[in-house]
Amino acid sequence: MSLINATPSITVTTDLIRLELNGTTVMLESDLSLSGLLVVNNIDVASVAIVVNDTVIPRSGWQHIQCQANDRINVFSAVAGG
Amino acid sequence: MKSLTDREYQQYSRTMLLNDIGEAGQIAIMNSQVAIIGMGGLGLLVAQYLAAAGVKHLLFIDNDVVEISNLPRQLLYTPTDIGKPKVTVAKRTFSRIHSDIHIDAMNIKLTDDTIKANLQLITSKLADVDVVFDCTDNLPSRHVINQLCVQHQLILISGAISGYQGQVFCLNFADQTSVILSGCYHCLYPSHTHIEQNCTQQGVLGPAVGVIASMQALMGLQHISSTLNQYGVLHCFNAKSFLWQQAQMSRDHQCHVCKPMHISAQDQGAEYVTN
Ligand SMILES: [Zn+2]
């Protein structure tokens, strides 16, 4: 962001948090919801289950639950074959 | 049945050597009744393990016929069975291998409509079932089976595999505390869930199917012999890395399938607090 002369330096930054996604460490924006996490990663929201710190999070909560620093998040594709 | 014959003692000795199972557990296994829905790769193997372990009453439900592409992983079917209903072939084969077994076969696909049309029959057949094994190959059937199990307060052991991803879990709908904690299949995968690929599109290796089927049979025998410690745990298996991951399942407080039967107003309040 370019700023004019003497005004205090204002920079728009988004805090990043470190967490584990499917076993890989990633840096993400701190205000990202679980739904947002899927969108950012191009994952179809309707085709997966999400596990946060070893607990399944039901889909109805994904929009309201934010990713936290150090979370261990696993995204599993729904499978129905037999 | 209250005691074992000498021959049965010998036959099931390895099971009974497990201290927590013992003779009482073996007798429970032999007195149990199970329903296996879907007689494909998962269902056949589950049935084989249970019948060999001593389960005498099995209900097979499926409406598929044997296809040539089934043979690499559906090990009891042979080329001469192609085109025949799976439940008919399975009943005949199991009856030949196990002389004292009672097999009930329903050549039907469980859907909302067929359940409505055969409600009395299906209800009576499930009335004394100890465990329902969901071994089907599609999401709509899995939702219907889940709903049946919730309504009849049954034990559901659900297994699924496609490509290199397998999932298996056991839910106890007879235990209200367990339902409040872990929910149901619909809580995990709501109705509008989209399955990206199934076995027909994605393929699968026979032994990978066997891993999930073995887990289902293992959970079933442990439940029946009262030695299962884990209900409501989702086990995910990666057949490429051979890694297992576990997760505690959670009830979706918006789920309409497992709510009306089991969640009283008081429990509902408690649930919101813990969530
Ligand atoms: Zn539910």
Helix and strand element order of chain B: HHHEHEHEHHEHEEHHHHEEHH
**What number of domains of chain B?**
1
Most extensive interface: pair and counts? A-B, 21 and 49 residues
CATH homologous superfamily heading of chain A: Beta-grasp domain
Uncertain segments of chain A: 1-8
The total beta strand count of chain A reads 5
CATH architectural name of chain A: Roll
> What's the number of structural domains of chain A?
1
Protein name (chain A): Sulfur carrier protein ThiS
Organism (chain A): Shewanella algicola
Domain THIF-type NAD/FAD binding fold (chain B): 12-256
GO molecular function, one term (chain B): thiosulfate-cyanide sulfurtransferase activity
Structural summary, described in words:
The complex is a heterodimer of chains A (82) and B (275). Chain A has 82 residues and is mainly beta. Chain A has one domain (16-77): Ubiquitin-like (UB roll) (Roll), CATH 3.10.20.30. Chain A has one helix at 34-40; strands at residues 16-21, 24-29, 48-52, 55-57, 72-77. In chain A, strands 2-1-5-3-4 form a five-stranded mixed beta sheet, with no helix packed on it. Chain A is globular. The N and C termini of chain A lie far apart (55 Å). The model of chain A is unreliable at 1-8 (pLDDT under 50). By secondary structure, chain B is an alpha/beta fold. Chain B has one domain: NAD(P)-binding Rossmann-like Domain (Rossmann fold, 3-Layer(aba) Sandwich). Chain B is 44% helix and 18% strand. Chain B contains 14 helices and eight strands. Chain B has helices at residues 6-11, 13-16, 22-31, 41-53, 86-97, 112-117, 119-126, 139-151, 176-182, 185-188, 199-202, 206-224, 259-262, 265-274, and strands at 33-37, 57-62, 102-107, 131-134, 155-162, 165-172, 233-238, 243-248. An eight-stranded mixed beta sheet of chain B has the order 3-2-1-4-5-6-7-8, with helices on both faces. In chain B, α4 (41-53) crosses α12. The longest helix of chain B has 19 residues, at 206-224. The relative contact order of chain B is 0.14. Residues 262-275 of chain B have low confidence and may be disordered. Classes of the chains: A mainly beta (82), B alpha/beta (275). The A-B interface holds A 44, 46-47, 49, 51, 54-61, 74, 76-82 and B 38, 40-43, 134-139, 142, 159-163, 165-167, 183, 187-190, 192-196, 198-199, 202, 204, 209, 234, 236, 245-255, 275. The structure holds zinc ion (ZN). Chain A: Pfam families: ThiS. Chain A: InterPro entries: Beta-grasp_dom_sf, Mopterin_synth/thiamin_S_b, Thi_S, ThiS/MoaD-like. Chain A: It comes from Shewanella algicola. Chain A: This is Sulfur carrier protein ThiS. Chain B: It comes from Shewanella algicola.
